[in-house]
């Protein structure tokens, strides 16, 4: 569990932590306004495919023109993580 003072969802770095740590099952973020976010590995977890998708999303975020665009790219990515064996709840 960790704090996201902005109240925003997970960052690419957060998701990468979950991918790289085999024994980590899930990750929770809590915003200062009470927002909660949870990502959790399922039995269908595919680390390699998730990491490739995350790299693509990270490149798009780096080329984004503003914060709102970066946030929307990450939100769109998180909507698709079920394809890689991740449950995302917000």
Key structural traits:
90 residues; alpha+beta; 4-stranded mixed beta sheet; 3 helices; globular
Overall geometry comes to globular
**Poorly predicted sequence stretches spanning 5 or more consecutive residues:** none
Strand order of the largest sheet: 1-2-3-4
Order of helices and strands: EHEEHHE
Percent of residues in β-strands? 15-25%
Give the termini separation.
Answer: 14 Å
How much helix, percentage-wise, in residues? 40-55%
Name the average pLDDT: 95
Q: Could you describe the largest sheet, including whether it forms a barrel?
A: 4 strands, mixed
- Work out the number of β strands: 4
Number of helices: 3
**Taking Cα atoms only, what radius of gyration do you get, to the nearest Å?**
13 Å
Structural class: alpha+beta
Report on this structure.
The protein contains three helices and four strands. Helix 1 links the parallel strand 1 and strand 2. The protein starts with a strand and ends with a strand. The mean pLDDT is 95. The longest helix has 17 residues. A four-stranded mixed β-sheet has the order 1-2-3-4, with helices on one face. Helices cover 43% and strands 21% of the residues. The chain is α+β, with helices and mostly antiparallel strands and 90 residues long.
Would you spell out the secondary-structure blueprint of this structure?
Elements: E1 2-4, H1 12-20, E2 26-31, E3 36-41, H2 47-63, H3 67-79, E4 86-89
Parallel strand pairs: 1-2
Antiparallel strand pairs: 2-3, 3-4
């Amino acid at each position: 569990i960790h704090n996201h003072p902005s109240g925003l969802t997970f960052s690419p770095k957060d998701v990468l932590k979950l991918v790289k740590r085999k024994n980590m099952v899930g990750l929770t973020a809590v915003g200062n306004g009470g927002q909660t976010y949870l990502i959790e590995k399922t039995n269908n977890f595919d680390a390699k495919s998730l990491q490739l998708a995350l790299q693509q999303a990270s490149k798009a975020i780096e080329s984004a023109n503003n914060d709102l665009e970066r946030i929307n790219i990450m939100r769109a990515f998180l909507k698709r993580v079920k394809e890689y064996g991740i449950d995302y709840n917000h």
